[in-house]
Design brief:
heterodimer; A: 436 residues; alpha/beta; 14 helices; B: 344 residues; four-stranded parallel beta sheet; 9 strands; 39% helix
Chain lengths: 436, 344
């Protein structure tokens, strides 16, 4: 029997609400005991002893929105660069979008990517995936949702494009409700956003870039709420970015509709002023919005309207970013910066520590019925040990991800992953000499 | 003219009293170049009034030179013209301007279909950079392309139009045209009419004319007026007669159908009916109000054909003429700034 004993460590477990000095015993990949040092007592003699002063032990991060680029676009992110980046970021479970080549619209492609086990050959997080909602993401024909669900799909989405057609959406929602799987939507009215290069407003006018109005998100969310009410599906909005979008979700939740949403760090940390130098690191989808939108997203995080935060990892190769702003590829590398950028919500006083961690572990795990997200006895021992106050500077060039483009380039942050554990096995340990 | 207006434009008035001979003498002096803050000329936004006036004054000197005179000021300087987007007048104007001030010009054929637009910009830039040009004059269909280019080449970049963003030399030549005709810009009421949303000329002119103290009105269908533009210090109108009431200059813009999505206006017929300028509508403007157009014109769409040819009212030909002088001044200023090196 393998035993690991975390001796008098700061345990932050949103699933139990523990945010205190505790000892945690892991046996054969499961949490055997977690509680006050007094309750737990001394470590068993055969246990590997781990103590780290000032460090926090939390459930491993569960990242619910990752573009894997596997299969088909491995020049943008290889399987190993993807998994190395994830575990270095403290992520123990990630959920990938189906916008691969081939598209994850069939059980074989999906199960080839999914891996709900540690990898014997090489450390890897658990990998799950959403099934494509429509065949080849064509927005017309429903994919084989039932077969995809059996193959392990944790929900259905068209990935980085919306399920646009209202009838198709209605059918998918009906069908997904029958399968008891959520539908995840990139909420953007593509007709209204057509040709858009950045958020519409004074800044797009000054820059001469075509605008994507906030209403493109609002319209799609409003329609989908109506259809969610009709179908009773579990409906989830990805990377919400607008004030009115957040407000619609808030009201739908009050009404009792089964609706959830996530956002990503750029949408509560940056606004469209960042684009004024046409820097393509800020070319994202949805676009960076106005300052009032940013504040509303932050408010949604604070009041719980926004359930989760995801990395929205969207690796792009260098060439695709070395283009004029309007035609540069959208997206950024997010796996390795998720933890510190979410911890910032705690250090800035916006969220209690336990809630910040919940949004990137327990909440997405519960929402998508994934392993992890809890260090209560009996849970799988997917864990991250991090130094909450250790400062470092975000440098894309130091990323393990093949994609080096981040809108947070050069930003100083706090919170450094020390080690990442999956089923009680250490899969990542920070280089102690690593200053970066 | 009111006393107040006269004092505000005293510099212009002094200039207008300067004799042609004096202007020609100054033009021939290589020391009289306009001073820039930057070795690139990417846009008007952020340019100070003295810099703008310096360029206009220098161009005004060049405008007086006999048309066949070639100046030696930029001898040994190489200018590459990179027009990723089709252009006749601007490209020819830059070409001529460079030659007239003594530079060597290479017209790089990049607008043809052999080069995939946009995608090849940096590759092209790196290749050209290896040939050590001093100045790259670029037009590109994407906003921000000239700023991007300027960060990847050693040469100075002169923006000859980037997407919907800026077209600085057009705004400068418009200002020179106005100044030569009316003697001043401060205090003038100027209406910019038509497709504002897709116009880089409108944006550069808004920045330039408001920096020089003109009062600017925009007249456009609501579909062609971009978001938040009223924050740029302009007054917006949707009625042409109301918008041009009492203005000194009506500046018309082309309907940029190549940048439009097809839903901005119902038809050219309706656009002309509501927003096209004809003699009757022009009567709402100040007596002797002048008409400008950056070209190419769509006769019968934004302007009545007869009005475009009215030599009393139309400055359109003069605008084209001033283009060469303005570009001479710009190329010279950029080359001079390069020699001096970056501000320490």
């Amino acid at each position: 029997m393998s035993r690991i004993f975390f001796d008098r460590i700061h345990l932050a477990d949103p699933s139990t609400g523990r945010d205190e000095t505790a000892s945690v015993l892991v046996e054969d990949g499961l949490v055997a005991a977690a509680g006050s040092p007094h309750e737990i007592g001394p470590p068993p003699s055969d246990a590997t002893l781990i103590s780290a002063e000032g460090a926090i032990l939390a459930p491993g991060l569960v990242d619910m929105r990752v573009q894997s680029r596997n299969p088909g676009h491995t020049y943008q992110e290889s399987r190993t660069s993807l998994t190395d980046a994830a575990i270095a970021g403290g992520i123990t479970t990630m959920v990938c979008l189906p916008n691969t080549n081939p598209v994850l619209d069939n059980p074989d492609s999906l199960s080839a990517l999914v891996r709900n086990e540690g990898d014997d050959d090489r450390p890897s997080p658990r990998i799950f995936a959403y099934g494509a909602a429509t065949r080849n993401l064509d927005n017309e024909h429903m994919a084989e949702l039932g077969l995809l669900a059996e193959a392990g799909a944790v929900g259905f989405t068209n990935g980085i494009i919306p399920i646009s057609d209202s009838l198709v959406m209605r059918r998918i929602m009906d069908y997904a409700a029958m399968l008891d799987k959520p539908v995840i939507q990139h909420a953007e009215d593509m007709a209204l956003a057509a040709g858009g290069e950045m958020h519409e407003g004074e800044n797009s006018t000054r820059l001469g870039l075509r605008g994507i109005p906030a209403e493109a998100e609002e319209i799609m969310i409003a329609r989908d709420i109506t259809l969610a009410r009709l179908t009773g599906v579990r409906y989830h909005i990805a990377h919400i970015s607008t004030a009115r979008g957040v407000d619609l979700v808030r009201r739908a939740k009050d009404e009792g509709i089964s609706i959830t949403c996530d956002t990503a760090p750029p949408y509560y940390l940056l606004n469209d002023l960042a684009t004024l130098q046409y820097d393509t690191r800020f070319q994202l989808s949805p676009p960076l919005r106005s300052e009032s939108d940013r504040q509303a997203v932050l408010d949604g995080i604070i009041d719980g309207t926004i359930d989760c935060i995801a990395s929205d990892h969207a690796p792009q190769d260098r060439d695709a970013k070395l283009l004029p702003f309007g035609i540069a590829a959208r997206g950024s590398s997010g796996l390795e910066t998720l933890l510190p950028l979410v911890l910032g919500l705690y250090t800035s006083g916006y969220l209690p520590l336990i809630r910040a961690i919940e949004m990137i572990s327990t909440a997405p795990a519960v929402l998508l019925d994934l392993p992890g997200g809890s260090l209560a006895p009996g849970s799988v021992a997917d864990m991250v040990l991090f130094a909450p106050e250790r400062g470092w500077q975000i440098r894309g060039s130091a990323f393990r991800s093949l994609s080096k483009s981040t809108p947070f380039e050069g930003q100083p942050v706090q919170g450094k992953v020390l080690s990442t554990w999956i089923a009680g096995k250490k899969v990542f340990e920070a280089d102690v000499t690593d200053a970066g | 003219m009111s006393g107040q207006r006269r004092s505000a434009s005293s510099k212009a008035d002094t200039q207008s009293k300067t004799s042609t001979n004096e202007l020609m003498t100054s033009a021939r002096s290589p020391e009289a170049f306009a001073r820039l803050d930057d070795q690139h000329l990417l846009g008007i936004e952020g340019m100070t009034r003295p810099v703008i006036e310096g360029l206009i004054d220098r161009a005004n000197q060049f405008a007086e030179l006999p048309s066949r005179e070639i100046l030696p000021h930029l001898k040994g300087v190489t200018v590459f013209n990179l027009f990723f987007e089709n252009s006749t007048r601007t490209r020819v104007s830059f070409d001529l301007a460079a030659r007239k001030i003594g530079a060597s010009v290479v017209n790089v054929p990049v607008s043809t279909s052999s080069i995939k637009k946009g995608e090849s910009l940096l590759d092209t830039a790196v290749t050209l950079n290896a040939m050590h040009p001093d100045i790259l004059v670029m037009r590109h269909q994407n906003s921000g392309a000239s700023l991007m280019l300027s960060r990847h080449v050693d040469a100075s970049v002169v923006n000859a139009g980037d997407g919907r963003h800026e077209h600085p030399t057009q705004a400068l030549l418009d200002a020179l045209t106005i100044k030569r005709r009316l003697g001043h810009i401060t205090g003038l009421k100027i209406a910019i009419c038509g497709d504002i949303a897709n116009s880089r000329v409108a944006r550069s002119n808004i920045h330039l004319l408001s920096t020089l103290g003109a009062e600017i009105r925009l007249v456009s269908p609501s579909t062609l007026l971009p978001a938040g533009i009223s924050n740029m210090g302009v007054e917006c109108h949707h009625d042409l007669m109301e918008g041009i009431e009492g203005v000194d200059i009506v500046m018309l813009l082309r309907l940029q159908t190549e940048r439009m999505q097809g839903t901005e206006t119902p038809s050219q017929r309706e656009f002309f009916h509501l927003f096209g300028l004809d003699a009757a509508k022009l009567s709402e403007a100040a007596p002797k109000a002048l008409i400008m157009h950056p070209g190419p014109m769509n006769r019968g769409v934004e302007i009545d054909s007869a009005l475009a040819d009215d030599v009393e009212r139309s400055l359109i030909t003069m605008q084209v003429d001033m283009g060469v002088a303005v570009r001479m001044a710009c190329l010279e200023a950029v080359a001079a700034k390069r020699q001096e090196g970056p501000l320490s």
